[in-house]
Amino acid sequence: MLIVLVGPSGVGKSTISRKLAERMHLKYIVSATTRAKNEKDDLGKIYDHVDEETFFKKLENGEFLEYATVFDEYYGTPKRPTLDYLANGEDVLLEIDVQGAMQVRFQYPDALMIFIMPPDEASLLQRLRERGRDTEESIEKRFRGAKREIWMAKGSRAFDDMVINDDVERAVTEISRLVRQKKSPGGI
Ligand code: 5GP
Asked: 93-150 pLDDT, tens per residue?
């Protein structure tokens, strides 16, 4: 089963993904990105940081399941590990943006796609500031991007569910329940 977690920058996706992958023994896919590594990356999503030339070589070779441009940088999900895990009957977790999620929805109509929402706009802005990873300009850009992503997600109907991250443990428990429900509808 393919599980896709989407949500705006700063909503707490990486923490939720890590806990969910641990709790449910999901295979977590490492994306490639042209974004430079920064010292706070160890706390967030794990990436394979590559230069633009390498990224485009991979793209031309058909190595990505999906890819997107986010805040002027490229991000892509590698096809190989994802498809191999799925072929082996494993559950795979992707943590990507809305544009990528649309591409996945098209290829895998059966994927479980969940959009993670902040409790409200003010707490999202606070989170973006608190993580201390970005400049004020970048924070404002991410905040505007977040509002656009939420708007797109609500309008797209591509998502199976929306989960509010008001409390990480609660959100992880809710997503675990949605995964189990999708695996055995009507089961306990
Ligand atoms: P960040 O640079 O803050 O780690 O990530 C920026 C955005 O890119 C986030 O919304 C994140 O989910 C998204 N992202 C990370 N990896 C991928 C990927 O492989 N594909 C797509 N489409 N988006 C990604």
From this structure: 999 999 999 999 999 999 999 999 999 999 989 988 887 777 889 899 889 999 999 9
Rounded distance between C-alpha atoms, residue 30 and residue 51, angstroms: 16
Whether pTM > 0.90 for this model: the answer is: yes
Is 116 within the bounds of a domain? yes
Q: How far is the CA of 96 from the centre of ligand 1 (A)?
A: 5
Nearest CA to ligand 1 atom 5: 9
User: What letter represents residue 88's amino acid?
Assistant: N
Q: Whose CA is nearest to atom 15 of ligand 1?
A: 96
Say if 108 falls within a structural domain: yes
- Domain span at 166: 2-183
For residue 124, being part of any structural domain is answered with: yes
Closest CA to 99 of 62, 80, 116, 74: 74
Protein residue with its CA nearest to atom 10 in ligand 1? 97
Q: What is the pLDDT of residues 51-85, one digit of tens each?
A: 999 999 999 999 999 999 998 999 999 999 999 99
Instruction: Work out how many domains the chain is built from and give that number.
Output: 1
**Ligand 1 within 6 A of CB of 134:** no
> What is the distance between the alpha carbons of residues 7 and 15, in angstroms, rounded to a whole number?
12
Is 76 a domain residue? yes
